[in-house]
Input
Amino acid sequence: MPAIAPGSATAEAHPNIALVKYWGKRDEALNLPCVGSLSITLDRIRTRTQVTFVAGAGADGVQLNGKTSESARVGAGLDLLRARAGVDWRAEVVSDNNFPTAAGLASSASGFAALMLAGAQALGLALPPGELSALARRCSGSAARSIFGGFVEWARGECADGRDSIAHPLLDRAEWPLAVAIAVTSVAAKSVSSTVGMRRTAATSPFQGAWVATQEADLAAARAAVAAHDFARLAEVSEHSCLKMHALALAARPGLIYWNGATVACMHRVRELRGQGMPVFFTVDAGPQVKAVCLPEALPAVAAALREVPGVLEVIECGLGAGAHLVAGPHA
Ligand code: DP6
Output
């Protein structure tokens, strides 16, 4: 008999944005990346998730943004926690995002970080953050990083079982409070998921080997830029990593085009602003939104400039945020 009673807990986590990108897996089952990555965790936009375990086996119930949702990944993530706790209880999961879901705004990162923290707490599992990061990684790679706030690095790791492929904090957000303007250019769900896109890229892109071979140098440059609070250096390596990831994916067969016209227009606008002396750079993930990272004093001007770009629907302004944390649930 399990020593614990079924419980309930609510957690919040924020999306993170990779400055040195994760793209490609060395092990799909354990979700181990073929490269390390470096990110910033955002504030303001978040996922809030309540997990309630109910004694007795059966199907999990998942509600996302008020709608019943089928999610094999949620069930698989909860199975990892149930195995740790030695129980077979089913779970009721109620989750909401205060930003567009599945549109390249990293809802899987915040979603699975919040799910694993709330689920572990609801089962009475006191897991250190590194273990939560490894569990969140199993659900979605980028979720490993949303366990932590500020600047975060997720190690590729060398072990076949993935125990060293976890994220860790690099620098506290208070020490270098960057800001981010997110230009939303579409709220449609993306056509090819990151998981499928990575699989196709690794199988067909002629640039896969070069991508893996050059990642360590990018990580070293980004780490050094973060340690030195060197914005120009971080801008250079971040735009390079973003464009290199997209070049890799564009060269897959069939090629993956995550951008629309407004995405490209925003990238040009950010470069124009930087040419005029504004401290800002862009990054784009597996979707059409453009994230303009800047020093806080530049945020109003950067956001205003992006709002003027034709095709931009909305600009969300954020700072750097905290790691995943427990909250008193609104659903409790
Ligand atoms: C482009 O973490 O969504 O945002 O591990 O398959 O769930 P899975 O992929 P996911 O991929 C994120 C890819 C990216 C780059 C990044 O966040 O590093």
Q: What stands out?
A: The two ends are 26 Å apart (CA to CA). The chain has a mean pLDDT of 94.
